[in-house]
Amino acid sequence: MEYKDKTLVCKDCGAEFTFTAGEQAFYAEKGFTNEPVRCADCRKKRKAERNNNK
Fold first, then answer.
1. The whole model's pTM is what?
2. Are the beta carbons of 19 and 28 closer than 8 angstroms?
3. Residue 28 maps to a domain
């Protein structure tokens, strides 16, 4: 399957970000069926918040 870069909108901050063809191939390889809903910055911030709450 051939992947093409997609522009998605972050559900947290509303910024547009690119879901690259390489990332799509990685998601498919890992068996992930959902596209990311957060940009890289918001994913990092959310992960840090989860780690601080442990």
1. 0.82
2. no
3. yes
